[in-house]
Amino acid sequence: MGIEEREVRVDRQERGERGSGRVLDGLAHVLAVWFGCGHLPAPGTMGTLGAIPLYLWLRPRGAPVVAGAAIVLTAIALWAAERVVRRLRTKDPQIICIDEVAGVFVTWIAAPATTAGLVVGVVLFRLCDQFKPWPARVAERRLPGGYGVVLDDVFAGLWAAAALLLARRLAWL
Length: 173
Description:
mainly alpha, disordered N terminus
């Protein structure tokens, strides 16, 4: 083993970095950027649109399956966002868009299984994500790490779902 290899090994040990940690960081990155959507222009919108194939695959199975997916996606988003935030040492890296995926899935729980339901859900979610009604803005500003990154979008998704339910109740959708 050469001097440079020893220095790299010692440096990794000092930082607590192991091979499995790098693999998990790589997996977290791929998920956090939702398979590349976060590296495109307008990553929030691209992440929201990138969620559509999964939704179209799950939608025929019913709202309970969509709700289950929203819960699982939120849990995965919290984990992935936290790892990426720590690795990049930034409060809310713009490349993270799995939070939009989780949030729009929360919205789609209330959407009718139609093209109009899908589109209106996307529009309402993006509006709520931009305006961040209470408690979304508070979550974004005050919660640490991955929680602040993800939960503001989940709260925005809840507001958009409420708007969808109102639209359905009024027979607008």
